Amino acid sequence: MSSSSPSHPSASTTPSPNQPNQSVGLPATEAKTNESTFVCNVCKTVIMLKNMATEWINEERELPLQRQKKGIDSTETEVVQGYFGVKDMFAFENIGFTRSAAGKRFLVCGECEQGPVGFVDSETQMNYVAPSRMDTQ
């Protein structure tokens, strides 16, 4: 695990007494929590209250663009880096889940269905949200 910590205004590091055992090829994780409440950037519905995240991964993942162009047969994506993770879906205040497409499930605002704001890891069933896809309160 690297000693440099990803910089995010809504992140705080919780030191762990031991280095976690990491499998080869898995991203490094650090115990982190969100210091701000996350809200939908469209309808302002609360998605996750502060201090609900249990980990931070400073990983790049491709997420579909929040607004897709009409008349295109494929889904446009962008690389998003940095996600807060929670194991229990009930840690969210208002979240929706997409149906599985090509083995992937995404998280959207539970009120207006804007998103995706994150993804579900199919192996661990962890739910990850990207702070860059939401506003803070």
How would you characterize this protein structure?
InterPro entries: Mss4, Mss4-like_sf, Mss4/transl-control_tumour. GO terms for molecular function: guanyl-nucleotide exchange factor activity; zinc ion binding. This protein is mostly beta strands and 137 residues long. It has a domain at 41-65 and 78-137: Metal Binding Protein, Guanine Nucleotide Exchange Factor, Chain A, CATH 2.170.150.10. The protein is 0% helix and 36% strand. The protein has no helices and 12 strands. A 7-stranded antiparallel sheet has the order 2-6-7-11-10-9-8, with no helix packed on it. A 3-stranded antiparallel sheet has the order 5-4-12, with no helix packed on it. The protein has a two-stranded antiparallel ribbon with strand order 1-3. A hairpin with a 6-residue loop joins strand 10 and strand 11. Residues 1-28 have low confidence and may be disordered.
List the helices and strands and how they pair.
Elements: E1 11-13, E2 29-30, E3 32-34, E4 38-39, E5 46-48, E6 55-64, E7 77-86, E8 95-97, E9 105-109, E10 118-120, E11 127-129, E12 135-136
Antiparallel strand pairs: 1-3, 2-6, 4-5, 4-12, 6-7, 7-11, 8-9, 9-10, 10-11
Pfam families: Mss4 (PF04421)
Region (Disordered): 1-30
Biased composition (Low complexity): 1-16
